[in-house]
Structure formats: structure tokens, C-alpha cells
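lol forgot to send this yesterday, sorry. C-alpha cells for the thing we talked abt
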């Protein structure tokens, strides 16, 4: 194959970020070309959906930028918080991930309930200039 249809293989790493007694699983996807790219994408899935929802999208985005797909507390087998979580609680978790990886101005991409979380993060961090809302609630 040649031309623009070639997709460079992606490296995938998984780790957790602990904040306020709960953990968020972070799946990092990058290619050799995107390893040092200044831009990053942070993918936030909706209720009942895991970061694997982005399995086809993440490697494509990783051709140009680093990708961080999140499984927030209570999602995809992650331990749920002891109390009823709020949008603000989940925004705190996303911000902990941003801080852990030094992501000052990523593109936030939220799906469904993830759009509510994304919007809360945007209100707190005016330095984030780009967001994508898919199926906002």
C-alpha cells in the first residue's frame, strides 16, 4: 500500500492515575511520529462504554498526536466511588490525568455523558482551546 492510507503501528501503554481514593485507567496510544507531538487527544467515553469504544479512532488519531483514552471510576470494571459521583467528581478525575501527564492544551473528545464531563473541565481550564462533543446529552 502507498500514499495516505498507510497507518503506522501504534504503541499502547496502560496505567492508572489515582486521585481522591479512586483510580482512572489511562490507555495511551502513540506512534513513533506522534511520540513527541505537541498536541494530545483525551478521549472520555459515556456511561456504559469503555475506552475500547475508541479502539478504531485512537490509532488513527495517534498518527498525528498522542492519545489518552480514559476509563473513569465506575466505568469498564474500574472500582466505583463509595458515594454517588457527580459531573464535578468525574471532572476532578480528568484533571488529575491532565496534571499527571502534563497536558496543558489537549483536544478533549467526549462521547454522550463524557461531553458533560468535558464541558465541566473546559469551564475550569480556559487554556484548553479545542473540544469535540459526540452525541452530547
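and heres what i got for the seq, position by position
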Amino acid at each position: 500500500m502507498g500514499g495516505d492510507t498507510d497507518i503506522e503501528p501504534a504503541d499502547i501503554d496502560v496505567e492508572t492515575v489515582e486521585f481522591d481514593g479512586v483510580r482512572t485507567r489511562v490507555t495511551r496510544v502513540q506512534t513513533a511520529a506522534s511520540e513527541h507531538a505537541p498536541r494530545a487527544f483525551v478521549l472520555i467515553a459515556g456511561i456504559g462504554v469503555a475506552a475500547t469504544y475508541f479502539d478504531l479512532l485512537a490509532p488513527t488519531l495517534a498518527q498525528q498526536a498522542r492519545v489518552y483514552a480514559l476509563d473513569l471510576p465506575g466505568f469498564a470494571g474500574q472500582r466505583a466511588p463509595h458515594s454517588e459521583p457527580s459531573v464535578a467528581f468525574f471532572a476532578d478525575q480528568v484533571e488529575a490525568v491532565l496534571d499527571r501527564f502534563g497536558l496543558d492544551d489537549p483536544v478533549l473528545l467526549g462521547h454522550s455523558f463524557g461531553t458533560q464531563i468535558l464541558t465541566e473541565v473546559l469551564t475550569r481550564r480556559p487554556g484548553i482551546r479545542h473540544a469535540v462533543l459526540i452525541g452530547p446529552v
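The two ends are 40 Å apart (CA to CA). anyway ping me if u want another try
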